Amino acid sequence: MGMRSTWYRLYSDYLAPTRMQDYRDLLREFIDHGYETHSIISFWRSLNSGSDISAGRHLILRHDIDLDCGAAKMMHDIEQQVGARSSFYFRLCTLDVDLMKQIEQSGSEASYHYEELATLIKRYRISSADEVADIVKEAQSLFAVNYRMLKEMTGLPLASVASHGDFANRAVGIPNHYLLQSQDLRDCLGIEVEAYDSKLMAPVVARLSDGLYPMWWNPISPKDVLKRGDSVVYILTHPSRWRRNIVLRFGEDVNRVVEGLKYRLPLSGRNL
User: Fold this and answer.
1) Where are the domains of the chain?
2) What pLDDT band is residue 266 in, cutting at 50, 70 and 90?
3) Once rounded to an integer, what is the mean pLDDT over residues 169-188?
4) pLDDT in tens, 130-177
5) What fold does the segment set 3-264 form as a domain?
6) How far apart are the first and last CA of the chain?
7) Could you give the CA distance from residue 27 to residue 183 in angstroms, rounded to a whole number?
8) Percent of the chain as helix, strand, coil, to the nearest 5
9) CB 72 within 8 A of CB 247
10) Contact 124, 94 (CB under 8 A)
């Protein structure tokens, strides 16, 4: 990482002001342009019902809660004020059961941001895609245990789930949603759709994700999408990027360094 990229990262994570008003303005602009907002599951069910998606304008909103539940609540409050629906996906380390229930009761969706494959890749210090085959069944079993636990804990349907991205997945070139290639596993657990499913993404004309300063959006800005009037827009945000929280961010950065160092250590006596 070059000096400029390092500075952009530091500014984004530690110095940038809270941008929740920008998020409110973003939603209002899309709604004013005639977009109907959706959670992942509401869009999926609309798609499967045979509705003519091309007949209107649709905005799919997804939030990955990697770090800051407080920021997620702020985004949800804004969506309630403007009448928007969305999906919030929580990791095991960011669970907020009360917030998840509030989100679901409001007509939006709260569910699981899973990472079991990455967890085992790091545990067993796996460094190549070829080795991943040895742990897939264990990762699927772990996913099923965690998913059922979360479902029982929250009382929520968890009808859709979304894969988390980790440095371990990038190291071996295999994402966490590789686990859910198994339709039997989905049927057994009652999962209707995974956020990266090709059928879900097929009607999407523009897919945007929030980024780091100075390019707050990838690959293009929402304003460019609005100018084009794309019929189906999918926006992924990470609420921790929209509110400065130095304590949480520093703790996460330390944890990443520690995990990275452990991952590079040799593991003796591995028995898969």
Assistant:
1) 3-264
2) confident
3) 97
4) 999 999 999 999 999 999 999 999 999 999 999 999 999 999 999 999
5) TIM Barrel (3.20.20)
6) 35
7) 35
8) 55, 15, 30
9) no
10) no
